[in-house]
Each structure stands twice: as C-alpha cells, then as structure tokens.
C-alpha cells in the first residue's frame, strides 16, 4: 500500500510500505476512505515531536471501512463505516477508567502517527478497536465526520471545558486555524457574551466571523488593547491558546482578567516564559491538556442533527495520492487560505483554493 512516511525533520515521502496486519485480538484493520492533516503533523515534520521516529507513517484522523477485526472485537465488523479517533483507549488502566483516555497507560493514548503507524495511508491498524473507532450513521458525510477525529473534541475538551466557558463570559481565542475555529463554534454552545478571535491571517479572521466570533483582531495590531477596551480594562474571562508558539501563550496570559482562565490547546515545541511575577497575584488558572475524546459520541450526535458547522471548515479536497501536495497547501495556510484539507472520499479533486466559508 501507499503511505506518507516521516523521514526526519523536514522530510516526508508518499511511498510503498507493507500492508498492516492484525497484531492483537483487539485490533481492527480499516481501509482509509477520508483522511486529513493536523497542525500537530506539521509540528512533527518540523521536528518538534522527537518521540516520532523516522520511518513512521503519519496521521491520526480518518474515516474508513473496517476490513478485518481481531477475535476480541465486538462493536464493529467488516464492512462497517467508522470514525477513527485520534486517541486509542485500552479501557482497563486507571486513566481509562476515569475517561481520561489521552493519558492511557495500557498501550493507548495518542499512538496513531506518533508511536505506531498512523492514518495517512491506504490502510491502518487501529488498536483497542472497541473503544477507539465509532460506527457512523449513514446521515453523516465522511468528509464532515473526519473533523470529529480530533479538532472538535480537542477544541471542546481542552479549550471550552478546561476553560470553563460560562454564560456571559468574554472569550478570546488566539489562533483561528481549524482548532481555534472549532473552539469558537463550541464556545457558543455556552452562550458567552462575546467571542474575540485573534490571528495574523485575514482569511482566518473572516472564517472566525462566519463561525460566530463577535470581534476579530489581527495579532500584529495590539489585540490586548482591544480586549481591554471591550472589557472596561478588566480582561477576558477565558483565553484559549490555539497556536502553539511562545508569543501566543504569553499574549494569552496578558489578556486574562484576575480570576480568569487560560486554556492552552496548542502543541508547543519551544519553551514559553511564564511571568509569575505578574500572574501570582491575579488568581489565574492555566490549564493544559491532551484530548481524551470522551465527548466524541455526543459531538457525533450533534453532527448527525446538523448542530455543528463542519463543512465550512473544509477548504480543500484532494485525492489520497496527492498527500504531498496537500501538505504543501496546508503548511502555507497564510497564502493558500487552507483551513482543513481532506483527502479521499467521494470527492477526489481539489475544489477550492481559498477559505470561502
């Protein structure tokens, strides 16, 4: 089969690799029908995630069709269309019993495209299939469903829930990429008084407005002053970091009010300065986290009911064999207007080159 293989920092290749096979009784082999690229994949390619070794097949988000299962798998069978979660869960360890699947100590957690071969391939082996894939209703489109593999549960759990968004809050989302946009959409489920989006790209700020942001500001144009003006100098109740660079995190800590919450969602490859000399007296709560995907079944029901703005996040579609081209487009999002790119599925050619949402 063909797969996108990490060869070392700055190097990947779409190449022939052996087909995956059942290794454990809880495994499923899934034919990949729709797959996407995550900002975390870009961090891996840059060398920011040293645990990923050369030779690893990348990717942790996909929708596909089960072609084979191990003897212990009971919830899916060959022929089923499924969502592959970015998190695998053994279901037995302490953290899985607490529904903190991202911290699984039984061989799961974030393993696909990280410590085992991932989804950016024609076929993928999914461990712990009973808890790590979700059967899809026929009403849910594969291209829409792939957004539930990572970005919607991540933004909702690590951003909205960790940030404890409440009715009447002022929420700031720094970074209007796919995760930040999903955080804007899911924040609105809790009726904040206002949502402010910060980004450097005008196309992404436009997408943020279309998804419900009440105000937008370019990151180079003093967003801290805008937040202060809109909150009578107090600061935001909740600030979410959805970029993964030190400057963005430090900006978040300057925009939060006393007693407020900073929810870090971004994947960081470099140290950020924590200015405790300013923060120690402000009663600020800072949270970090890896998604657990415990919210995926609920979000799937919302998508089936038409309650999530999923299609508007997909700006580019490619054939599976155009993986390297898709990476190029996604990595230059500021120029291409890419939000989320999807490969494979019923539509196989690029249908958009700008963020028309």
The ordered string of helix (H) and strand (E) elements is EEEHEEHEHEHHEHEHEHEHEHEHEHHE
N→C terminal distance: 34 Å
Q: Structural class of the helix and strand makeup?
A: alpha/beta
How many H/I helical runs?
13
> Proportion of β residues?
15-25%
Radius of gyration: 20 Å
* Portion of residues within helices: 25-40%
Looking at this protein, list some descriptive labels.
357 residues; 6-stranded parallel beta sheet; globular; disordered C terminus; alpha/beta; single chain
In short:
The chain has helices at 39-46, 94-97, 129-132, 142-145, 151-161, 178-187, 202-210, 223-230, 246-255, 276-279, 296-304, 323-331, 333-336, and strands at 2-8, 11-16, 28-36, 62-69, 81-84, 123-126, 133-135, 170-174, 194-199, 215-218, 236-241, 256-264, 285-287, 314-318, 340-344.
Can you give a write-up of this model?
- It is a single chain.
- By secondary structure, the protein is an alpha/beta fold.
- It contains 13 helices and 15 strands.
- It has helices spanning 39-46, 94-97, 129-132, 142-145, 151-161, 178-187, 202-210, 223-230, 246-255, 276-279, 296-304, 323-331, 333-336; strands at 2-8, 11-16, 28-36, 62-69, 81-84, 123-126, 133-135, 170-174, 194-199, 215-218, 236-241, 256-264, 285-287, 314-318, 340-344.
- Strand 12, helix 10 and strand 13 form a beta-alpha-beta unit.
- It is globular.
- Residues 347-357 have low confidence and may be disordered.
Write the topology of this structure.
Layout: E1 2-8, E2 11-16, E3 28-36, H1 39-46, E4 62-69, E5 81-84, H2 94-97, E6 123-126, H3 129-132, E7 133-135, H4 142-145, H5 151-161, E8 170-174, H6 178-187, E9 194-199, H7 202-210, E10 215-218, H8 223-230, E11 236-241, H9 246-255, E12 256-264, H10 276-279, E13 285-287, H11 296-304, E14 314-318, H12 323-331, H13 333-336, E15 340-344
Helix pairs in contact: 5-6
